[in-house]
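Open question from group meeting: does this chain pack into something compact, or does most of it stay loose? Before anyone orders reagents, we agreed to write out a predicted structure and look at it together. Recording both the input and the output here so the notebook holds the full record.
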Amino acid sequence: MPVRIPKCLIIRVFVSCRRSLLIISLLVSRSPMYIRRKAKPKPWMAKKKGRSKPSYANASVSSANPLYKTAEWESTRQAVLQRYPVCYWCEHIGILTESTDADHIQPSSSLQSRSQFFDQENIVGSCRSCNSKRASYSAKGVWLETKEEWGAYLKMKFFAQ
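Structure tokens returned:
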């Protein structure tokens, strides 16, 4: 008669500690997909509703400004990335990194008109890391107006470390 192998097999190991008996249960299965642990309930945390979307799904499109979703922005972005194939900010500190983002020198939130938003003199090609680094500096209160000022500031920050 053939022997049936169960999908899961629970192995209990008894380990004796000084004052208590510790029971360890191991779940062994054919595939790690079967192993699902249910988390302990945490009443102080809000319950999730549905699946959460990964933050990187639409990373190149900002939902803060609707102008980022226009065809005009996409053509401006492509033109800037062709003009600056190497990250403008990395190039200032002597590193060669491919440009992946179109970065406004003066933040898009401070621009007054639509024409300023699409002005290619205010936009340079940058890598993701430099773009987020500059955004964090702006959030901390570092407001610089020109490419040269930003280049000198980033060079000072990079070589000061």
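Observations to bring back to the group:
The radius of gyration is 27 Å.
The beta strands are 8-16, 21-29, 101-104, 123-126.
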